[in-house]
Amino acid sequence: MSGIQLTRRGFLQATGIVGGGLLIGYVATSGTHTPAVMPGAGAIAPNAFIQLTADNRVIFYSPRDEMGQGIYMGLATLIAEELDIPLKDIQVEFASVHDDYKHPEYGVQGTGGSSSMRVHYLPLRQAAADTRALLLAAAAIDLGVSRDSLTTEDGYILSNGTGLPYSDFIGTAQTLELPTETALKPKADFKYIGSDIARNDALAKSTGTATYGVDVDLPDLYYAIVSRSPVAGGRVKSVNDSVARSMAGVTDIVQIDSGVAVVAESFWKAKKAAATLDISWDLPELAKFSSAQIKADYQDALNSGAGDTEISGSIEDGMLSAAHQIDREFWTPYLAHTPMEPVNAVVRITGDQAELWAGTQSPGVARGLVARHADVQVDKVTVNSLFSGGGFGRRGQLSHVAEATQVAVATNKTIKLVWTRENDVQNGWFRQASVMQINAGIDERGLVTAWDAARAGGDLTPHTVASVLPGALPSVPKGINDLLVDATESIFDGWVIDGGGVEGLVDDYDFPNKQLRHASVNHGLPLAAWRSVGHSFTAFAKETVMDELAEQAGLDAFEFRRRNLQGNPRLLGALQAVQKGLENWDIPEGHHIGVSAHGSFHSYAAQAAEVSVENNQIRVHRVLCAIDCGQVVNPDIVRGQMEGSIMYGLTAALYGDIEIENGAVKESNFHDYKMLRISEAPEVEVLIVESEEAPSGVGEPGLPPVAPAVANAVYRATGVRLSSMPLVLV
């Protein structure tokens, strides 16, 4: 293909594929020409996001879904700021599925990649500012005064000291053209942006009144549990369901694409009956593989020199000028997402219409899946988006929606399909495993002269395409979908490097000579974006190597990184904030500090971990985190996301390991797929770096630095460099 001059970035932009993200841009237009919001009597909806009612209520239709990351609060804050109305007075609703709510970068309506605040910060403020300007123009006409004599405060138009509710001017506003490009508030005038304000979903969530997918209860509801192949991709050869059919409360047993579904009057009855099924499976090629063989295959691919390569500068020249060199290999295993609320979906089909209730990262794709499997028109499917009990990328994978729809069609019942924890750990989607190799050199000044990095493992994007495409193109026949998936696999195995497997591996520092090689080795286990995607493992390799290079250079961890971060002032600023913050720490005897720094999702984070080791047991006592995420909308949410991502990352660093044995996942629940316990949780201090940049991600950037920070501290405690996760001393 030497005649094609197209970069990886250009290819991704041209095709709409989001490297390292959750969704893809293969989208069939839904043909929605009606407004996203149809206002009620006496109400006005000047755009897809805001409705002002006759009783002066403001309803904000959030285009992104809430999974605990705080976007329900964050986006509403933007509306409150520019519309000049107290945040507590805004009623937030999850948006319906509509073209106006598509993610501006992904091309489909979805949430992921720590992108919601970044892509909506200005557009939503503009929508609210234009709405406020419209109301002021209407008020000037109704009151017979100049526009300049009016102002607003807390949802009221102020005229000569008198406050009149916005709703008084709806009638006239309906006759006016919506202003555009209204001037936005300067930062100095912010009332809500940048302030610690209690979350608007906190009360409902803490009192149990917030509705999650698992809470949905309808009068005609039946529960479904699916028995799936122990090896991904297996198909049913035969099933003996005689015992299950005789059990009380069981109404139906049906075979669907992914296995055998048991339908019953309650979840427990369905679960008990499903456990009695005797199923013989036709197993795929994956059944031949176990974790050790998968790792060996990755190593063989890298050692053979296979893969696609991107080069900047000359590695040969860089190595010739190096005073010190190191060559290291790293292993990171498959991981499960384990959101607190396992995935679930409720589907009801009535004639030529269908309805879905679910918490999902991809409501538009979910609607397409229901339409495909129920054989109804897309615009006949209603999606009720709900709170999600965690996502981390897992709720971007929607096989449970397809399953619920297939069962509803087969039984002519309203179906609530729930994945058990065991289902999710053993039959779900996984973070890709990786072998990474880094060969690096430094000169006498402590500057990196060469950075040669390679990674082998599964490609994320083809799995994402296979998952999303049937819902994004619901009317396209399966055969054509399969051809597109096959084409995507070919593209990422021989032409384009999949960003989701290498992002961050050669980034951040001033590497004048760098090379990135990627060998695609796919064994068939379903892969999905996991919190911070490729950064979750590339930072571990990159930052432990940087720590070892610092030692070779005779420099401390901060000074060495500082010398190699002159071209990245924001990451340098976060690193310096951590260094200064540590001045206030008293480090007990026997405790050691490890440092790391990593940029991801347009944000820049540095961390220091305080660690002790006793009897080969690693204990993390404190973590100091500095984050530059641009303009901060709610500092409390930023701190909460850093704390949460650090705990999530520590779980992976200390315990995370999905082992494959003969193609099947060995782990099943939290007894053998361990989570970090409260008693093990470190104290976390978060420093927010002041920034005038636009807001960037906070849900994921706090995770990548924690594992290498801990590993680097372990080295200082023991003299042992750990190169595999989970971090274990033997």
What does this structure look like?
This protein is an alpha+beta fold and 730 residues long. The relative contact order is 0.12. It contains 20 helices and 28 strands. It is globular, with a radius of gyration of 27 Å. The longest helix is centred in the first third of the chain and has 28 residues, at 116-143. It has three domains: 31-199, Aldehyde oxidase/xanthine dehydrogenase, molybdopterin binding domain (Aldehyde Oxidoreductase, domain 4, 2-Layer Sandwich); 213-284 and 343-418, Aldehyde Oxidoreductase, domain 4 (2-Layer Sandwich), CATH 3.30.365.10; 291-336 and 431-459 and 498-718, Aldehyde Oxidoreductase, domain 4 (2-Layer Sandwich), CATH 3.30.365.10.
Characteristic terms for this protein:
Aldehyde Oxidoreductase, domain 4, single chain, about 725 residues, seven-stranded mixed beta sheet, globular, 28 strands, 3 domains, alpha+beta
Helix-and-strand structural type: alpha+beta
Largest sheet: 7 strands, mixed
Instruction: Give the helix level as a range of percent.
Output: 25-40%
- The CATH superfamily title of the largest domain: Aldehyde oxidase/xanthine dehydrogenase, molybdopterin binding domain
Measured distance between first and last alpha carbons: 49 Å
Instruction: Supply Rg.
Output: 27 Å
Oligomer: single chain
Name the beta content range.
Answer: 15-25%
So what's the CATH class of the largest domain?
Alpha Beta
**Residue windows where pLDDT falls under 50 for at least 5 positions:** 1-32
Shape: globular
Instruction: Tell me the number of helical segments per DSSP (H or I, 4 or more residues long).
Output: 20
Trace the largest sheet across and list its strands. 9-10-7-18-15-16-17
Mean pLDDT: 94
Tally of separate domains? 3
Number of strands: 28
The name of the CATH architecture of the largest domain is 2-Layer Sandwich
Q: If you consult CATH, what is the topology of the largest domain?
A: Aldehyde Oxidoreductase, domain 4
